[in-house]
Write a structure and sequence with these properties.
It is a single chain. The protein has one domain. The protein is an alpha/beta fold. The chain has 4 helices and 3 strands, in the order E-H-H-E-H-H-E.
Length: about 90
């Protein structure tokens, strides 16, 4: 579903590390709650990009720029900051 504003791919892009969601799915829970709040608040349908598939975000090349180039055309960017997200040893 495209953004409510022409020229954007999504209204909201949520960036996180897959490891943060592995154990108890708290990132998925956050996203589902956010979507519920958006549905009850806005008349328009707000599109949210959230990559559940571990290979969807960085693809197999781990090239952040190439894999996210089109997805980052969004109105709101929400990074979920964690120890693994900020890991200096991470290629991302």
């Amino acid at each position: 579903m495209p953004s409510i504003i022409e020229g954007y791919n999504y209204d909201i892009f949520i960036s996180y590390r897959q490891k943060d969601n592995k154990h108890n799915g708290w990132v998925t829970e956050f996203v589902n709650n956010l979507k519920g709040e958006l549905e009850s608040t806005f008349k328009e349908e707000i599109s949210v990009y959230f990559d559940i598939n571990p290979h969807d975000g960085l693809l197999e090349t781990h090239d952040v720029d190439a894999s996210l180039k089109e997805k980052l055309k969004c109105l709101v960017f929400i990074p979920i900051i964690s120890r693994t997200y900020c890991d200096p040893k991470s290629f991302a």
